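Q: How would the structure tokens look for this protein?
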Amino acid sequence: RVSCDALCIDPFFNIQRGVLKNRKRMFFFQMTSDLFFADYDVCHFFPNGIDMAFLDGLHRFEFLLRDFINTEKSCHKNSIILLHDCLPYKAGISCRIQPNDDWTGDIWKILPILRKFRPDLKVTMFDSPPTGLIACTNLDPESVILNDSFSSIVEESFMTPDEPENVLDLRTI
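A: Here is the predicted structure in token form.
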């Protein structure tokens, strides 16, 4: 719905309609985001930083957390990072293993992680169907808190349980 220049990263693109719209530039990288951030500097494409990022990853919180860390490094004070699928509408779709149903994975865990480790962020939840949207502002590209704590975050209780006791409680975190 936006027509600004875009940088798109996906291991397996499946483009079925026109996406260029009125953009002057659109960069596609068919690779994992980990490989992209290891090989490229976003500021090469957007020297003034990212205005808006939409992260919709591999349905595992540790991948989304790494994407958040890497993306924030290229942001500025007015940037916004949008996180998709963080508000599952029922517990059965919020586990690490994909069921034979809709699936958000355990990326809902990003909410308590950000609350605990980055209380300086402004996190706004949108109950947009089907699985929510999170907007993060007050970003700090100089922050190393999440990066320095990454291993301990993954090892912490964030690996279990697989599902929140009540997914509706996520909306009050």
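The radius of gyration is 16 Å.

Residues 25 and 45 are 9 Å apart (CA to CA).

Upvote if useful.
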